[in-house]
Design a protein that fits this description.
The protein is of the alpha+beta class. Helices cover 51% and strands 13% of the residues. It has a 6-stranded mixed beta sheet with strand order 1-4-3-2-5-6, with helices on both faces. A 4-stranded antiparallel beta sheet has the order 12-13-9-14. A hairpin with a 2-residue loop joins strand 12 (533-539) and strand 13. The termini are far apart. 40% of the residues are buried. The structure holds a DNA duplex.
DNA sequence: TAGAATCGCCAC
DNA sequence: AAACGTGGCGATTCTA
């Protein structure tokens, strides 16, 4: 690639003229080089700003936060558009080290993800994206060089070219997004970047002592369970120690556990939970085994490892978010995944508001069923939400033609199974197993359900057929998922029909949620000036906000109103409900 | 011996 | 009893 014209900026008097040139630009490329990946433990070295034909490279070791402040309004404004590849990374460093909010972004990484529409094989680093959309090759080797010392011409050339390439990349990706009707979805994604940057920087507070106590009590119970199981199962062992004692089996090995059970006369093909559940009533040892599994799982997945992830600088957990974590648009979090902390009081109560703060925990009530009602226009299902009654009880009443107060617990369970199952494309066999009923019973229940909600039936069928015919699905915002499933293969056809039903619903829930995050970030801005309210967790349909106690009540109202306002942008027929509580810990009726 | 594949299970 | 969608992740087992 041809060398880029760049200017290394190390003096304060160079900032104002630079700001003037940037201010009149429609679009600028932006990139950073840092001494590491964690903004709390590494430094921001370079900030590159690309204009057509020119790249300014700011040496952040030479200039103070105060001296760079004139750049801040540009970074936060809608214009110029800041083009970055994975702006979340740059945005975290800008926010933490320079106090700048990054907004008004076009993210080429997110754009590439949207355009690939769920392809698992596409890569989305800058190098493959440039290759795919500009048909050019770039060299990323200098990325991992040492950015903390004196800079070589090669490093500066790399820094400049990485920022410069973003401008032509923007042109091409913008055009492709337009052609694919993805500009609305792209704006949803770009708009919530600022909040996702906040989510990662804010992190969550974990009560370490409480967590340690939880681990300790589980470990001691596990020791007892383990001894009991070894005594019972080792008789089945084929291995013996040098002293003739039975070799203990590895209870974490499904194969060894299966063999041991078979030796005890308990015939099993595998040892998955549902299968062991079936055996537990007749075999106390299996129940104990299940308890061991549970403890073992929790201790390994939610034990000391979580404590090790606490950031030494902030003392908090800072998960990484993949903003487009699935083709439906759902976010995922990792290191740790706060989205899979067990939903029990002992775990959730460890996630607490720090002193002087409260947690506002808010989630959408039945959001996916409401989306289904809105999409299908089914009068009875819409009516169920209008009446505001317990949905599953209402569904049972609709199915069985009974008044609400005559619905039995079992009938409500049936209705609940259907409400949850059908949006996932469940069939009669699946429902039968879930409800512990016969396939005939399940079939008849589904018939009753669809008789009560006929437009739901037709919408689901049309969605399945559309997936088969077109090989793709879209959400309310236009988010696209192109299915890589072969409709000529019976198994893949069935999977295609299931995902065809679910994708528009789950994906629209993502649209609504992400829009809500954006709106809430904006609403909280006036509090954020004082660092008094911040979003600290986001789990598919639930938001957790940490707020200073004096403003918590006001923030609670804001959170609920904002989430409702977002849903209204996408749903026309159905009202959504938000359950919200203000508490000390991450607890609520959900 | 490192990485892939598999089993299994946590969340919404 | 692989057929209920989306994910992350840990332990074991397989494989190059």
């Amino acid at each position: 690639m041809e060398p880029h014209r760049y200017r290394l900026i190390t003096r304060e008097d160079e900032i104002a003229p630079l700001v003037e040139r940037l201010r009149v630009a429609a679009v600028i490329g932006i990139d950073t080089e840092t001494t590491g990946l964690d903004p709390f433990q590494s430094r921001l070295r370079l900030l590159q700003l690309a204009l057509p034909g020119e790249v300014a490279i700011i040496d952040c070791f030479e200039l103070t936060r105060e001296q760079l402040r004139p750049l801040a309004p540009l970074m936060a404004a809608p214009r110029p558009i800041k083009v970055a590849h994975n702006a979340k990374f740059d945005g975290k460093f800008l926010r933490h080290h320079l106090g700048m909010v990054l907004d008004g972004v076009f993210d080429t990484y997110l754009a590439s993800l949207l355009l690939s529409a769920g392809s698992e094989t596409d890569r989305h680093g800058l190098e493959p994206v440039v290759a795919r959309y500009l048909n050019r090759s770039i060299d990323k080797q200098a990325q991992r060089s040492d950015w903390s010392g004196s800079l070589t011409p090669a490093q500066l050339e790399y820094a400049a070219s990485d920022a410069a390439i973003l401008l032509p990349l923007y042109d091409v990706l913008h055009e492709w997004l337009g052609k694919a009707d993805l500009l609305v979805t792209a704006d949803i994604e770009f708009d919530c970047l600022r909040a996702v940057i906040g989510l990662e920087l804010n992190g969550v507070h974990l009560d370490v002592e409480r967590w340690r106590g939880l681990i300790a009590s589980m470990r001691s119970e596990q020791a007892g369970v383990e001894a009991e199981l070894q005594a019972a199962l080792s008789g089945a062992a084929r291995q013996f120690t040098l002293f003739g004692d039975p070799e203990p089996i590895n209870l974490d090995s499904p194969a060894q556990v299966r063999d041991a059970l078979v030796h005890l006369g308990i015939e099993v093909d595998d040892t998955r939970e549902w299968r062991l559940q079936r055996l537990a009533p007749d075999h106390p040892i299996v129940a104990t085994l299940l308890r061991h599994r549970h403890l073992s799982k929790n201790l390994s997945a939610f034990g000391d490892n979580i404590l090790e992830m606490i950031n030494p600088v902030t003392g908090r957990l800072h998960p990484e978010y993949r903003q487009i974590g699935s083709p439906t648009g759902r976010m995922t979090s990792s290191s740790p995944s706060l989205q899979q902390i067990p939903h029990t009081t002992e775990y959730r109560s460890c996630f607490r508001a720090p002193a002087g703060c409260q947690l506002i925990v808010a989630d959408y009530s039945q959001i996916e069923m409401r989306i289904l009602a809105d999409f299908s226009r089914d009068e009875a299902l819409l009516g169920a939400f209008d009446r505001g009654a317990d949905l599953h009880r209402q569904t049972a009443a609709d199915m069985f033609g009974l008044p609400l107060d005559q619905i039995t617990q079992r009938q409500r369970e049936y209705a609940k199974g259907l409400n949850y199952g059908l949006i996932y494309g469940m069939g009669a066999e699946g429902l039968a197993s879930r409800l512990d009923a016969s396939v005939a019973e399940a079939t008849s229940l589904i018939e009753r359900y669809f008789a009560a909600y006929p437009r739901v039936a037709s919408w689901l069928e049309e969605a399945a057929q559309r997936a088969v015919d077109e090989g793709k699905a879209r959400t309310a915002s236009g988010r696209l998922w192109i299915f890589r499933l072969d409709p000529h293969d019976p198994q893949q056809l069935a999977a295609l029909r299931r995902v065809g039903k679910n994708a528009p619903i789950q994906g629209t829930a993502s649209d609504i949620f992400k829009r809500a995050i954006r709106l809430l970030e904006e609403s909280l801005q006036r509090f954020n000036a004082g660092q008094d309210a911040r979003i600290v967790n986001a789990i598919h349909d639930e938001l957790v906000v940490e707020a200073a106690t004096p403003i918590a009540a006001e923030v609670e109202q804001l959170v609920a109103q904002t989430m409702i306002a977002s849903a209204r942008e996408f749903l026309t027929r159905v009202e959504v409900e938000v359950d919200v509580v203000t508490t000390d810990a991450w607890l609520k009726g959900k």
